[in-house]
Write a sequence for this structure.
């Protein structure tokens, strides 16, 4: 159960590799893997990009995993328990689960930190669960972070041109 899990995420702007922290965040890592095995993330958008132009100098996050091209929300599995108290920090290039105000509301959406976001760490606001890290292809994350964004209906920070996941596969 605690083997190192490496995945490649191929996007419309390039590929990057991630490592999942299954030992520290087993519920969250397994939830993400379940979505990967269902090919859930194929053609989902990075629908929220708060890059350096919006949050100088480093940016904030890029978020994806919940909307199909066209900003249509995807049906998800039930929410999972928040594992933000696992000792991991929302540091640059780590992956965390997005959620609502409800601490145990994370489903499929995740974000990648563009800087060290201590304000997202447990116990602040209940914390956001870190469950992995980008281990190569950081330049792709930076490229996504630099795209122009706009508002689409009630959503802010949506890329003007779609940035989407083509596939996620185990290495």
């Amino acid at each position: 159960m605690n083997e190192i899990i490496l995945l490649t995420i191929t996007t419309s702007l390039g590929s990057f590799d991630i490592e999942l922290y299954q030992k520290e965040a087993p519920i969250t890592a397994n939830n993400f893997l379940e979505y990967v095995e269902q090919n859930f993330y194929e053609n989902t958008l990075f629908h929220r990009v708060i890059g350096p132009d919006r949050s100088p100098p480093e940016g904030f996050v890029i978020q994806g995993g919940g909307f199909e091209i066209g900003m249509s929300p995807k049906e998800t599995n039930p929410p999972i328990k928040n594992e933000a108290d696992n000792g991991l920090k929302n540091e640059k290039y780590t992956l965390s689960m997005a959620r609502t105000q409800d601490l145990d509301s994370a489903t499929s959406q995740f974000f990648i930190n563009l800087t060290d976001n201590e304000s997202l760490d447990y116990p602040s606001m209940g914390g956001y669960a870190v469950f992995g890290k980008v281990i190569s292809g950081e330049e792709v994350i930076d490229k996504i972070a630099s795209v122009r964004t706009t508002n689409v209906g009630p959503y802010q920070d949506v890329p003007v041109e779609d940035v989407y996941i083509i596939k996620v596969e185990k290495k």
